[in-house]
Automatic annotation (TrEMBL):
Top-level taxon of origin: Bacteria
Protein's name according to its UniProt entry: TAXI family TRAP transporter solute-binding subunit
Annotated InterPro entries: TRAP_TAXI
Length: 327
């Protein structure tokens, strides 16, 4: 059975259960798909927890709504699916959402996705600048002339890396740029063929933990007046700190992060998005997120309206104003 057929088979079973429980009464349920990421990543299990919560029975979920988490290729694929109408919502990095909505960065020359709207900011995805311990790199400025992987063309990381370099007065031509995914970049760092690489993701990341244990690393801080100016210009970034000993023998490191966000289309009704947002932040969902995944505890109402690179959906905005999160 294909993935698509399996998804709809599961949705049909869940829908039947929902109707049997009296959620939808005589009315057929509405389906609300959440595009996530690969099944081995963080987006997929978090999406499953949220989908289960908003499909919940009684006053724990949204009446008449059945939600499913759908595996995908991540941020760009999810935005494309929302734009085409093949998904009602999806997860994305805040920087990718900003570029899509503004037609810049990864979306330069591809047009704007003007209908993209935010339901909630979920949790931080930290910008790691991982360096070989003996590379003598103590600041971003020290990358000049070094062998640095900034990820592959077409990735979100490469755009973020260029922004960070630019904040410190550097361009790609000032470094010996490599274009490797994080796994191969870590291997090259271990073998002495690379001095540093950029990685965007939640901490601790298994591959970096293994590298720190086997070879030793340093995490390069991304802070100072250069970053203050960067944060003013790019609202999808936030300050972040990697706590001491997150990675073996690495002290507390100040850096910046983008955010994992849940986005939808302006075409979705205000009432549906209001009810979904309200359910996302009820006590039952809170308990499910806390118990269900390590990142779940970082998903908080206080952070829901941070890293606003795109407009909130009016339905979500209504809830956040009622909840006192927005003035």
């Amino acid at each position: 059975m294909s993935i698509t057929r399996r998804i709809f088979a599961v949705a049909a079973v869940v829908g039947a259960v929902a109707i049997g429980a009296g959620i939808a009464g005589a009315q057929a349920p509405s389906f609300f798909r959440i595009g996530t990421g690969g099944t081995a990543g963080t987006y997929y299990p978090i999406g499953g927890l949220i989908a289960n919560a908003i499909s919940g029975a009684g006053d724990k979920g949204v009446p008449g709504l059945v939600s499913t988490a759908v595996a995908s290729n991540g941020s760009v694929a999810n935005i494309n699916a929302i734009q085409s109408g093949s998904m009602e919502s999806g997860f994305t990095q805040s920087d990718v959402a900003y570029w899509a909505h503004s037609g810049t960065g990864l979306y330069e020359g591809k047009g704007k996705v003007e209908d993209l709207r935010l339901i909630a900011t979920l949790y931080p995805e930290t910008i790691h600048l991982v360096a070989r311990k003996d590379a003598g790199i103590n600041s971003v400025a020290d990358l000049k002339g070094k062998r640095v992987s900034i990820d592959e063309p077409g990735s979100g990381t490469i755009v973020d890396a260029r922004i960070v370099l630019g904040a410190y007065g550097l361009t790609e031509s000032d470094i010996k740029a490599e274009h490797l995914k994080p796994g191969p970049a870590g291997d090259r760092l271990r073998d002495g063929g690379l001095d540093a690489y950029f990685f965007v993701g939640g901490y601790p990341t298994g591959a970096i933990s293994e590298l720190a244990t086997s070879s030793g690393i340093s995490l390069v801080p991304i802070n100072g007046p250069e970053v203050e100016k960067l944060l003013e210009e790019y609202t999808f970034f936030s300050k972040d700190t990697v706590p001491a000993d997150t990675y073996k023998d690495v002290g507390e490191t100040n850096t910046i992060s983008v955010a994992a966000q849940w986005v939808t289309s302006a075409k979705q009704s205000d009432e549906v998005i209001y009810n979904i947002t309200k359910t996302l932040w009820n006590d039952a969902t809170r308990a499910a997120l806390d118990a269900g995944h390590a990142k779940g505890k970082l998903i908080t109402l206080q952070n829901a309206t941070t890293s606003l690179g795109i407009p909130l959906h009016p339905g979500a905005e209504k809830f956040y104003r009622e909840a006192g999160v927005l003035k």
